[in-house]
Amino acid sequence: MITVFGKRLRLFRPRSIWIRKVVQWGFFALIALIAVNHSLAESGGGIPLIASASLHAVCPFGGVVSLYQLATVGTFVQKIHQSSFVLMLIAFLLAILFGPVFCGWVCPLGTIQEFVSSFGRKHFRKRFNHFIPFKLDVYLRYLRYVVLAWVLYMTAVTGKLIFAEYDPYFALFNFWTSEVAIIGLSILVVTLVGSFFVERPWCKYACPYGAVLGITNLFRVFSIRRNQTTCKADGACSILCPMNIPVDSKTIVRDHQCISCMECTSEAVCPVMATVQFSTRGAK
Amino acid sequence: MTLKSKPLAALVVAIMFGGIIFSSAMGWWQTESTKEAAVYTEGEFAGQANPADIRGSYTFGDVENNFGIPAALLVQAFGVQTNDPAGYQVKGLEEMYASSEQEVGTASVRLFVAFYLGMPFDLSTDIYLPESAVAILSERSLNPEQVAYLAAHTVPNPSGEAAPTASTAQPTQAAAVEAQSTPPEAVQVTPQGTPRAEGTHEPSSDQLVKGKTTIAELLEWGVTQAAIEQVLGMPMPAAAGMTVKDFCNTNGLSFETVKAAMQVEVDNAK
User: What ipTM does the predicted assembly reach?
Assistant: First the structure.
């Protein structure tokens, strides 16, 4: 720790929140294990003591798309079970408290996108995650609300899990089964290829569940907050934000795309202590 | 209050798994269907299982439990070759009929069950049945709309599979047109596709105990009065025209339980 022009700087600081990677890959492994075990159980096998639930049963978005049918008919959309509804409530609780931490810390599709992006970042360096022109990007960010509206409408009208055919998350953990649709696999491939150029392309432009959780950024309890008095305005937080949020121009990040990854905080890229923090209002 | 990454990680994991453990303890954590189809909430069939709620994860045994149609009959209807009819999963049909030009799958089973039991079913979408299923349905009472629908929505059985009865061809379009002109609501389709009026009704060969089965029909099928009373656990009603289901409802008996036991008696009496 040194002090330069009255500001405390860390000489050696972590470049990323390593504990987040641990949590992410932990959930990734868990979901992968459940998906594989489900396939084994379908063919009469299965690993003892490991859940063999279907992927739909452990996806909180299933609860969201079932809300209309649950309210009107009293049943879940086909393939969706009560566990999806429970997970939806848990994810909402987390989001109200901490923002879309489900996206940034739990979702395996986000994890695999970040993994591919790590190679893109090394290859393109500063150009990585800045390929799409800002003027276009700012509008594309709302595309996921269009996807959300379409999914909710189609599911309500048909009573079927329409999105499963297109869902890259489902394709990721079912590519070895006959249940996955070609369109879903294609979207997964496009997403992974896109991740080499852009951080989390699916999350930014198309994820309907990210759209739902993103709304909680407007009223969440814990937010990313920047201390203007200690900030040395080097722009590191904005440059390295995976979701391209201009953190250095805000005092509180209310952007609907924030995933609470904490990569912009003083614990990671911000070199000044206690300047960009994950905190409640009034925190010192 | 400021939160660092490690406490946040701990909170995320704790809330996720804590929530799951809590919901499990409360009995809310269900990752599988209960295999109990939703029931009609209104209309003539209020309270009865709705075929539209049959899921791909259901086995033919689950369908049998919900709707009383024997798994063996479903296997026959869909040309499935299996040693365990009750264990066959409905979604397996999609793979079995993968080579078919039209999809045969879960929706087909829903349609078959609805038509077989004379229950209402939305026909606004195209759902296809194999010839073998249509042949079985041709023995049931269908209205002209259903006859016409089947005529236009029949696909061949997978190669190597034969329809259950010889030349049980699908009902032809001509038959459907003819059926539409037949005034009575209940029109039947012969295996050859020719509709016949209710008056020329032929005895059903499958002798299934279902909601509309009367005590008189049980006696007609050869089930003795003693056997009926043994299943019911009480004297049978004086009015033999009373349905088994109505008798069960009146006397507080489980129709599903009685139905299964009575079907055994019917099978033994054959």
Answer: 0.91
